Amino acid sequence: MRGVFLKIYLAFMVTALVTTAVTITLAAYYRQWSNDSVNLIAPTGGYISAAELILQQGGEPLLLEWLLRFERHPSVNAYVFDDQGLSLLPDPPATVVSYALSAESYEAQVSPLSRSEILVKAPIESAGGRVYLLVVEFMHPLVVFNLPAYLGWGLLASFLIFAVWSLILSGYLTRPVRFMQKTVQAFASGDWHARMDPRSLRRRDELGELSREFNHMAGYIERLIHDQKQLVSDVSHELRSPLARSTVALELARLDAVPDQEEHLDRIELETQRLNEMIEDLLNMAKLDAQQDHSHWSDVHCDNVLQQVVDDARFEHPDSEVNLTLGEGLPVIFGDRKLMKSAFENITRNALLHTQEGTSVDLSARMKNGLIRVVIRDHGPGVPEDKLNDLLRPFVRAESARERLGQGHRGFGLGLAIAHRVVSHHRGQITLRNHRDGGLMVTIDLPPAG
Questions:
Q1: Cα(100)–Cα(110) distance, integer angstroms
Q2: Which CATH number fits domain 35-144: 3.40.10, 3.40.50, 3.90.25, 3.30.450?
Q3: Which of 7, 43, 300, 435 is the most buried (most CB within 10 A)?
Q4: Residues 6+ apart with CB under 8 A from 426
Q5: How far apart are alpha carbons 422 and 427 in whole angstroms?
Q6: Is the pTM of this model over 0.90?
Q7: Cα torsion 372, 378, 379, 383: sign
Q8: Nearest CA-CA partner of 51 in 126, 106, 118
Q9: Which fold has domain 189-292?
């Protein structure tokens, strides 16, 4: 979103600065293009008559006094040159001298970008017949206002005004897009009730149409997901009853069974137990997906939960080695203790299932970049790189897990999926990767409370 905001902001700024430059250029050439210079030249006839009259009545001293008073005019100056080409006023501008001494006719000179915007010259004659040359200079208005300072302060003021205005306008234009981005992120994070702001829905432009289309899509997806979860939950509940009856029937069959049938009855019992475990996992997943109430959450000590998981694993697998390393000063986590324990248990059981005989399962917890990082690693064959991300989806297993199903182990591909949902439920992240020395390493990053 910052890229879109910056592009819009720069577009406004460039447009504003170009407009300012064009305005200044038009202002500089205004007199020439609007023929206003003709209106300025017209009054010079009065200046010429006045200068000649003063020269004839009072000579050079009175004319010099008149020139000195004339210099006080902010935008018009007058200069007189004698028949030797010398100015009665000291240090006249070079442009005035050049124009006065030029051999051209008495045509006015118009220079829209120079200090002397308009120069007009005319001869005046004294009472003794001596001829003088009067030059009237109309200065450019920008020069009167001190052109460098005028341009500098004008550009600075324009930049500041347009910068603030562009910032406000860019923020106004991108605000609905930013809200849409937050809504989409919330929806993608599992908040299926996230919808666009009603103000965006009332818009009559493309953004309003996009908001309405998103709400329609979000409602349709929410219904699909709800129906899917409800179907899984209903089917799982409905399967409980026939499985319970099958278990009773199995026990009754054992009463009349002969020794040759025991092996088949044991196999039926094992498969029934697996079905019960799978249904339990499915119900847990459905319950976790539907759970939105956090009122029962509390501070959870991650080290205590991990210690309990390790103690249970050592009790269930006395022949396996389970190691736990805890960092100092681990903060608490705000969440559901039971759910977190089930997530750690599922990952630890998965690690115990796949670790090589005679190797250990290693658990550790420490602070990393402001998050509590829990790492659970086995020393098994690992997982193909192209299947690592798929393991977090339900009913996806590595080939090595399938090979062990005949050995009495659980393996429905739900353990890591449940752990993934629990971690996401607590605003955490779970990643899988193969350790460089072999085995699968599961990394869990959880935000501390507060």
A1: 14
A2: 3.30.450
A3: 300
A4: 333, 335, 336, 339, 340, 446, 447
A5: 9
A6: no
A7: negative
A8: 126
A9: Helix Hairpins (1.10.287)
